[in-house]
Amino acid sequence: MTTILIVDDYAPNHRLMSFILEQHGYAVVAAFDGQQALDRLNNAAVDLVLTDLTMPKIDGLALARAIRADARFTSTPILMVTASTREQDHVRASGIGIDSFLTKPVDSEDLVREVARLISQCPPPEDTAPIKMFEHSAA
To answer: Measured on CA atoms in the order 112, 107, 12, 49, is the torsion positive or negative?
Structure first.
């Protein structure tokens, strides 16, 4: 099952996005600020990070920087859902490695469509166990 980490400090937004995504078959991991998100990433397998921009402790941009700096998460899609419409926020976020944006209030169909699009573009996880080839020896 695909797991999405939702990072938003405003509980009603968090509950609504969780409900929508769970109704479409996604598992949801909750974090209410960037620091909690980093803790969750260390303890759960996450396929996509959905984050707000403005949050206490660590904001969405700093969270994205930290995620992209960790080799384990370089290909994990990051979707920013924010009330900010400032072009400079979008430019800065794109430069950090945020894959997509949705503006609040977000339409539920747009949210599900964008999550599905980002998940489908994500490369499959690398197999950490090497494939062993058996040689047939003429002994």
So the answer is: positive
pLDDT at 122: 65
Task: Name which of 24, 122, 43 is nearest 77 in CA terms.
Answer: 122
Closest CA to 14 of 48, 43, 52: 52
Q: How far apart are CA 63 and CA 127, in angstroms?
A: 27
Q: Domain 3-121 in CATH: superfamily?
A: Response regulator (3.40.50.2300)
Q: Which residues of the chain have pLDDT under 50?
A: 125-139
Question: What residue spans define the domains of the chain?
Answer: 3-121
Contacts of residue 21, defined as CB under 8 A and 6 or more positions apart, other chains included, come to: 4, 6, 28, 111, 112, 115
Model confidence over 77-116: pLDDT tens digits?
A: 999 998 877 777 667 777 788 999 898 888 999 999 999 9
In the chain, % of residues over pLDDT 70: 86
3 state DSSP class of 45: coil
